[in-house]
User: Fold this.
Amino acid sequence: MRLADLSERSGVSTATIKYYLREGLLPPGRRINATTAEYDDGHLRRLRLVRALIQVGRVPVATAREVLAHVDDDSLGRTIRLGAALWALPQDPEPDEGDPAVAGARAEVDRLLGMLGWETARELAPLSPAHRSLVVAVAALRRLDFPWDAELMAPYGQLMHEVARRDLDLMESRASEAEKVESAVAAAVLFQPVLRALHRLAQEEESARRYGIE
Amino acid sequence: MRLADLSERSGVSTATIKYYLREGLLPPGRRINATTAEYDDGHLRRLRLVRALIQVGRVPVATAREVLAHVDDDSLGRTIRLGAALWALPQDPEPDEGDPAVAGARAEVDRLLGMLGWETARELAPLSPAHRSLVVAVAALRRLDFPWDAELMAPYGQLMHEVARRDLDLMESRASEAEKVESAVAAAVLFQPVLRALHRLAQEEESARRYGIE
DNA sequence: CCTTCTCGGATACCGGCACTATCCAAACAC
DNA sequence: GTGTTTGGATAGTGCCGGTATCCGAGAAGG
Assistant:
């Protein structure tokens, strides 16, 4: 498969594929001679993942590169590979520690982790980007007078735990080690648009039920 | 409260506030004379909402303007106002109708709405941006060999319905009509980062439980 | 063999977006 | 009355995802 074929099969322009190659999101093809390179199904699969991350998951190109570098790092075991890939994902700003909303949010999040029994997450809290993102988001809600406390969040936490179990089950069903980690990354990123859309649809449905359509 | 005070109390630079005024995200202050304008707590509240939408919710400025214009439109009843505001939110690309993954996704989504009993959502499907977003996201997952069918999505749909009920309860508890709609918009937008962070944390926790930390 | 087309890589460029810096004249502060 | 501050207008900045152009090396056709 040459670059033009890869482009046609994926629906991505050759210019954009070249850009991804430059940026290291896609490994280079096997060089046949000075003007031709050969790509295989692995390249196609990776290209589809890249497009899904960037277009559907809205992951910045630089972040996608980091994440995929971890996915490809054969020197790491699966757990570390997955952890490293997931930790490279978020890029939220540092919370402003002077803000009382942040302090309150942090306390509630810690209480939430205790209620859920997520002891590992609690231990890793100072390091985890996901934990930081949660604090930032809850702080923003509290600033807007949304009284989001641990009790309110606990059911959502339990649901997300259930989702995570399914993610990992799905991951284990994949054949190769690289595919396993790819699958978990895709689940982490692409699940969000689905949930968001379901949430909005549910709001529309419930609003129509309560107040009518007119 | 003058512009400089508004800036200090909100932590947003005067230059940025001026930008939001220009862009129509923030109503102009009451002009006192040629060089001074007076802002009130309503402006502060709106400014915090704008910042939350843009920074935490990652809503583009142009989209936020549209959404807020609907929120402020007194000529509409609550239902329509809320609906218009929510429908202005997403800006996903049109799905490629030639793609078989899109056709499959559309069929599964329709089946899902039937299973959930969301009849209104089903009727509004051709119009609803949320429905379109869902089709796009599910199609992306299917292209990556994630077998997301209606049975798999149904529990998440039910949960999101529960979340939507809470959103609307919270909305009804607000005092003014504008605050009610603002509250629903904030819930639609700011809930996402919280869920995403909980999802990632749950993945970390479950991964650590299954495979250990190291 | 010679022409013409196509290939892939390197480089420069583009458009959108969220701000930001500068300038200005009016008006307060002392 | 003089220096500082105010808010509005305008132009500019930095980043980011992607695109257009140019190039010399081969492949394709006669």
Q: What stands out?
A: Chain A is about 70% helix and 5% strand. The mean pLDDT of chain A is 88. The CA atoms of residues 6 and 44 of chain A lie 7 Å apart. Chain A touches chain B through 82 residues (CB under 8 Å).
